Amino acid sequence: MTTTSPWGQAATPASPAAAMAAATTEPDLTPSRPRYDGKLGELYVIYLRHLVLMLATLGWSRFWGRTRIRRYLWNHFAILGDRFEYRGRGIELMVGFLLALLMLAGWGGLMYLVWIYVFHERPLASFGLFDIFSLSVALIGFPLAYVGHYAGLRYRLSRTRWRGIRCGLAGSAWRYGGLATFLTFANAVTGQLLTPLVSVNLARPRITNTRFGSLPFVFAGSAGDIYARYTAYYFLNIIAWVVAAVIFFTAIGGAVGGLGLDFTEDEIRKVLTRPSLRIILLVAALAIGLYIIFSLLILPLRCWWQAYLFRYLVSHSRAGNVLFATAISTRQMWGFLVLNYLIIVLTLGLGWPWVMHRTLRLISAELWLYGAPDGASIRQPTDLGPRYGEGLLDMFDVSGV
């Protein structure tokens, strides 16, 4: 007995005449949106069980807990009526972590040999062995975090199925890590003026190397398209920072003058070394005031740019005859980012399931797909993907799900 996939049923023409008509017909661009029907309560049951098991196993069960959370999220997210599947296993994540741990141990051994045979166990500018090791790990961790991001994305896609077809990610994680490190450094040196170039050139390999079976994704974006909008954002951002600084220091001066405070140099040194409760409360109030000023002046501008960039990247991506679009607004981006940040901070990290739940709800509400993949032309990929995953991501980056 044979079974036919949903695509096979839709793609098989009833007659040669129907096949000829289908070949000359314009692609169907019927709009649709993803559907997410997960429940926050159900997600928290899985998450809290995950936390309890982590405490009982000293953290070693987190690989299986992460896998269970992903299975729930994937299975409750659907496109064109069909749900995603997550086929990853906890043991694969643990093996990836152990391999990254061995790599770090090997690096530590190399640093020990350098300490013995190069520095002859003598401190270098008050730097001991542990200091040199920590500094070197921080330096190599920066590019390795990008490598880990790409390799982690490859692992997750290789364990993702839709309509029985595996997804995948081609390309080199090391090449991506080198490119991301170079572009990030160049952007920092130029005062963030290369941000559009960085955003587009880092999005391109992630999008164009993505595969759904044998169907590649296509990205037609260019940094030149978004530089005008970014230039406006860049100078508005400078103006906003100047205004925020003026407001902040004016408020400090007013507070000091209003309270009749006139500090000498010795008093300032005493305040910094042994602050009183009054000073601590004053500093806390100023910090809250600075955060409010930042939220009202700087953050909306940043969300305006992020919303525009997200709309641009989505609308310039496609998969075969499937087009993508989103109309996410600055207000939605502001609410999404600010509330997610507050949820994480105010719950001391226990709000992660809520953040993931909100993220998928936003995607399902704001992402539009036009058309459907041609199932007759898509084949299962021959590459099974990596045998383990996310070791570098676990080691050099704080990752969620």
Question: How would you describe this structure to a colleague?
Answer:
The protein is an alpha+beta fold. The protein has a domain at 222-312. The protein is built from 14 helices and eleven strands. The chain has helices spanning 6-11, 16-24, 40-56, 62-75, 90-117, 129-158, 173-189, 195-208, 223-258, 265-273, 277-315, 330-346, 352-366, 391-396; strands at residues 31-32, 35-36, 77-79, 82-86, 160-162, 165-169, 210-212, 215-219, 317-319, 322-326, 367-370. It has an eleven-stranded antiparallel beta sheet. Strand 7 and strand 8 form a beta hairpin. Helix 7 runs antiparallel to helix 8, helix 9 (223-258) packs antiparallel against helix 11 (277-315) and helix 11 packs across helix 12. 21% of the residues are buried.
